[in-house]
Design a protein that fits this description.
Length: about 210
């Protein structure tokens, strides 16, 4: 099996286990802010147990994809409890089972930290996004503060082994490499948490940018 497939399988097992044992769907102001900006046909990648489901505006039609089958079952149960009509399925962010330019909004809510191939996941998100659509992203990233970054560097091997969690990633680099235009970029928690809204320009502008 290729190395990325092996790592994806390891992450799936970790999140099957974590999803089954998690006690609550903790609130997160950043996720609420992010999801409130979704519009139209929306895809959330790595939707987990459905923590974000109540945060979306009612006029959004939500599709969620998630690697862990246990998490998908729990998210489906949560959607039923909330009376929401959403489409959820198990799948891999690195090979999205959707046609090109299908969604108005694509959301990553603390998912890129655990997706083995984050570069491909962003490229796939851009592929399924229509021109004029937006990527909404919140993630813990590499801090620009030297002391904080050193701590992240020390903790990362443990986080990776136990939770498959990368602490030093820079998703903004991938978003820019795909030719998207950044509309909002905010950092908090000593620069460890990034909020990003980026627009996919129309096809001609995109071809010039990449
Ligand atoms: C930290 S959790 C966040 C879950 C949810 N977005 C939330 O905020 O509660 C990361 C999620 O990404 C999922 N994930 C990891 N790799 C993935 C992949 N290759 N494709 C789809 N989902 C993936 C994990 O299974 C996990 O549910």
């Amino acid at each position: 099996m290729p190395a990325n497939d092996l790592e994806t399988e390891r992450i799936r097992r970790i999140y099957d286990r974590r999803s089954a044992s998690a006690r609550s769907n903790g609130r997160d102001a950043g996720c609420e802010w992010l999801c409130s900006k979704a519009d139209g046909e929306t895809l959330e990648i790595g939707i987990g147990r459905g923590r974000t489901l109540p945060f979306y505006p009612r006029n959004v039609h939500l599709t969620g994809i998630e690697l862990s089958g246990v998490a998908v079952d729990l998210a489906e149960r949560r959607a039923r409890e909330l009376g929401l009509d959403v489409t959820l399925r198990q799948g891999d962010a690195a090979a999205l089972p959707y046609p090109d330019e299908h969604f108005d909004t694509v959301v990553f809510c603390y998912a890129l930290c655990s997706i083995p191939d984050d570069r491909t996941a962003v490229a796939e998100a851009v592929r399924v996004l229509r021109p004029g659509g937006r990527i909404l992203l919140i993630e813990h990233v590499r801090s620009p503060n030297r002391l904080v970054r050193t701590i992240e560097r020390l903790i990362e091997p443990i986080a990776l082994r136990r939770m498959g969690d990368h602490l030093l990633r820079e998703p903004l680099d991938h978003v820019l490499a795909e030719g998207l235009e950044v509309e909002t970029l905010e950092r908090s928690w000593f620069g460890m948490v990034e909020r990003l809204v980026a627009l996919k320009p129309d096809s001609e502008e995109l071809a010039e940018a990449v």
